[in-house]
TrEMBL record:
Keywords: Coiled coil, Ribonucleoprotein, Ribosomal protein. It holds the Pfam family Ribosomal_L29. This is Large ribosomal subunit protein uL29. It comes from the Bacteria. GO terms for biological process: translation. Belongs to the universal ribosomal protein uL29 family. InterPro entries: Ribosomal_protein_uL29, Ribosomal_uL29, Ribosomal_uL29_sf. GO terms for cellular component: cytosolic large ribosomal subunit. The keyword Translocase does not apply. Residues 4-31 form a coiled coil. One of its GO terms (molecular function) is structural constituent of ribosome. NCBIfam families: L29 (TIGR00012).
Length: 69
């Protein structure tokens, strides 16, 4: 999911997406530890996706704080 698609979502939807990505990252780390992980590139994509979601959430929070002042 790219940043433009994420910017269209609400903060609640972004939080749900972040929780899902964190769960997936946990599962991928668990698979790697047990030697079952086949696609190691997926770990990188999930971590970057979570960082992207956090960035968009921070941008939205900053914009909301700017409007309040």
């Amino acid at each position: 999911m790219n940043a433009s698609e994420l910017r269209e979502k609400t903060a609640d939807q972004l939080n749900e997406e972040l929780v899902a990505l964190k769960k997936e990252a946990f599962n991928l780390r668990f698979q790697q530890a047990t030697g079952q992980l086949e696609n190691t590139a997926r770990m990188r994509d999930v971590k970057r996706g979570a960082a992207r979601v956090k960035t968009i959430l921070n941008e939205k929070a900053q914009a909301a704080a700017g409007e309040a002042n």
